[in-house]
Model the fold of this input.
Amino acid sequence: MSIHLHELAVTTTGRALVDVTDLQLHRGRPVTIVGESGSGKSLLAHAVMGTLAAELRVRGSMSFDGQYLDLAHRATRRRLWGRTLALLPQEPVLALDPTMRVGAQVAEGAATWRTDRRQARTASSALLARLGLGGEVRAFPHTLSGGMAQRVAFAAATIGGAPVLIADEPSKGLDELARAELAALLRHHVETGGVLLTITHDLDLARTLGGDVLVMKDALVVERGPAEEVLDHPRHPYSRRLLAAEPSRWDHPWMRQHPTHTTTAGGRGGSRDTDAVLLTGAGLGKSFAGKTLFHDLDITVTAGERLALTGPSGSGKTTLGNVLLRLIPPDTGRVEHSPALAGGRLQKLYQDPAQAFPARVPLRHALGDVIRRHRCDPRHLDTLLGTLRLEHDLLARRPGQVSGGELQRLAIIRAVLLAPTLLFADEPTSRLDLITQEETVRCLMDQVEDTDCALVLVTHDEALATAVTGRRLTLHPSDTVRTGTTGSDQPALRRRPARALR
Amino acid sequence: MTDPNGSGGTSGTRNLGTSSSDAHGREPSTAQVRPAGAAEHEALQEQPGPRLLQGDPGSPGRAGWWTGLGRGRRAARGGSRAERAALSVLGAVVLFALLGPLVWPDPAAQDLARFLERPSLSEPLGHDHLGRSVAARLASATRLSLLLAVLCVATAAAAGTVAGVLAAWRGGWIDAALRGTSEVLIALPLLLVVLVFSAMASGGLWTLYVGLALAQWVEYFRVVRARSALVLGAPAVEAAGLLQLGHAHLWRRHLWPELRPLLLTLATFGVGTSILALSTLGFVGVGLQPPTAELGLMVTEAFPYWSEAPWMSLAPVIVLTAVLLGLLGLRRQDGTDRVDGTQGAR
Done:
């Protein structure tokens, strides 16, 4: 079986969002579309599925197995869902029904659900067991880690036996182990004769999957070809820029200027005594629902240093961060802040910046309140907007109407307005595509550099941690904590805990 | 309790102002806290009242006063036809209630010679069994019902909002006590609460007001508490704490924009409920006592003369229907607005 898409176009009020003249998907050869947010790659997937918003106009046709479908009629795809076409959604934690147990949720997709419930449930349990989730059949989605939720979503998408699988940003928010598992699942789908279309901005995933890669920019496919060719020897300037945006290939002035707080692995703190200590945590311990996230952990952050908190999902990075910020109390131990952090000089960047701003008021109020409250110079805001390449008009919008990258830069501006001495960044770029991530991190690091503030970066992206920080603290689910210089050999990641806590 | 708007708003923000657990250092003065919260608060409380009275019902620009609360969000969409019809109906009722006394001055003046006089051009609803002008009585009764309903809703909304935010904010025993009280009240039917109060002081205006407000604050409390807890637990509030933006900011930018559409929807409901409750009590004779003109009471009084003068019974019923239909039309509009807002926020 193979699928041909002809003259596929998605438009809104005259503007083209997707314009792809020809796309062929074949059995056994995965196709991956990469590109930045807003390039139209997700819309392409949804145009094929027939799940686009009603206000978007779709043109084009799709042929497979001798059938010919007009993509403009969304309803034609409906009867194919689950049997022929399946979608692996992004953010599976949100895509799963929070009120249904995993097994029942997957069973609904089985072919025999309407005729033979028991068989559907058996099939569901068997599939979940094959995916290593045999023990979680009766679990609710919120108790699963991101990787497990992704596997459940994969089970739900494929239980109907659909040969065509469309994966929309499947690796978003997953740590490396979960990403490797996901890639193995997708490859397995291809190797067993499935058709796979993956939409992603994760170039590692594209590399692992192989097959063909298409690079999309501004609704158009700018380059296409075999994965190794496109991803190793890109011809189009945009593809080159996309590749250069991977943290492992970054080359920025601030990357060479780490404060030299190197310690030997296993050493505590890792700072010279002469540096001003901003924050000290001693004997910290925290557990949730009987599971210990960390215990007897000592940590020191000194002025101007850059520390990464890394570890797989659910290892308690964010929790440790919140303990250090004194937003939640530790079970044992204590956290001390130096007076230099008083008065709003300890700031935090959030993983989802849209949730860090009041949702229903224009951004100018959110920033204006900071300026009024702390008597900042309003011109400083204008300067920062210029430096971070943001339009002033953005401030008239509400958080939901601004893209994630722009909003994260606005969050950086909001934090920097107070001239912080310590900036705590909790996965600030994990929801952004590569190019936006590079731009956001560059803006962040320029500000960190300018104001000489310390940075604590929580991330599960090892390459990013290496690029940005000088010291690293890695959390493991099994309570072992290692500190060391970035770039030193990291122990192999262990199995994630059964229940993720974030 | 003569100024429920002001007192509600002030105590609300004061509660927010003193319940801090962090950021003492740069707490703004209460004078600074107050106008922000209070002004916004009054905007809600006043809107069904004075704002209703402005302008010419039915003209296209008239949707502005109501949609203006949405800060242009709704203005772009314009009013639907149902919405405009509802506004015209409500406007007409309010105009009648306001201008009626100018045309027909005294609702209590008796003239037994005009016993059950048929409607004429100067007296479009005729006279009742005591020769009183039915139009004058109807206008007076409508004004009384609307005013009392708006006052009850304003009091209930103010009290419920303050209590709800307080419970969500402080938690602990305050939350437990308020929730317990609200659960006791919600277990009783609204009319029963009001009846108990009326029975205690035989149908005075004051007891009716207190009874209705007491019965209604619970729903505001529960809705506000649930939504406030959600808002206060969000990262945005955590960020505001780290930025030390203070409690006025939390109220103005975080809580109030979330609560406003909910409160508006509840308030339109509440006005209808209050008017119905008042007339129900009047109808069964435990509400306001004669000779006060009251919609339910007027229906009861006119029933014996149904075959001679059916318009006497029908007039108050028509007014009640018009008010409720009008409020219903507005309520639906607010419901859709809430959905829009949520989508925009995501």
